[in-house]
Amino acid sequence: MNMCEEVIQKLFGEYVRGHLSQIGIDFVDEHTTECDVCAQILANTESDYAICKEVSPLLRVYVMGELGLEVEQIFVKNHVKTCRECAQSLAILEEGKKLPCGDGLLMGYAAGDLDRYNQSIVEAHLTLCSRCAQDVASIQSV
Ligand SMILES: [Zn+2]
Ligand SMILES: [Zn+2]
Ligand SMILES: [Zn+2]
To answer: How far apart are CA 70 and CA 124, in angstroms?
Structure first.
């Protein structure tokens, strides 16, 4: 088994997002100071992630069809072709946009009994729809 590919490089996604535990971080840091190949791949992962951070606020605007500049639309489209994380966020936002307002899911969401997938769709809807966001806030405050 190739330790670098199978073990170390699989941690990079979590590493750049700050999701690793301290032990994991130390493990990666220690390895990349000794291994040039992994150090290079980690650097690439970091620069990709910097792009993700630029893309993620645009995704919402993109789904709303309000992205003004064509270059920005192309930037988002090209990025989601190569980035699984952003493609998934985009898919969830699109599902959220399709959700009919006042849907029963909102009640379930406010009551906290949705599974994670539906929960993220409702959350996506709430970021796109201020009316439902208000409804949920008022249900939750009762
Ligand atoms: Zn390595
Ligand atoms: Zn991305
Ligand atoms: Zn709505």
So the answer is: 24
Using CA atoms, how far apart are residues 5 and 62, in angstroms rounded to an integer? 34
28 lies in the same domain as 75: yes
Distance 72 CA to ligand 3 centre (A): 26
pLDDT tens for each residue of 45-64: 999 899 999 999 999 999 99
Which of 40, 42, 43 is CA-nearest to residue 10?
42
Ligand number nearest CA of 37 is: 1
Domain count, the chain: 2
Ligand 3 centroid to Cα of residue 103, in Å, is 8
For residue 69, is it within any domain?
yes
pTM, two decimals, is 0.75
CA torsion sign for 76, 79, 85, 88 is positive
Q: Which domain holds residue 128?
A: 99-142
Q: What is the pLDDT of residues 64-119, one digit of tens each?
A: 998 888 899 999 999 999 888 899 999 999 999 999 998 788 889 988 889 999 99
Ligand 1 center from residue 25 Cα (angstroms): 14
In a domain, 119, yes or no: yes
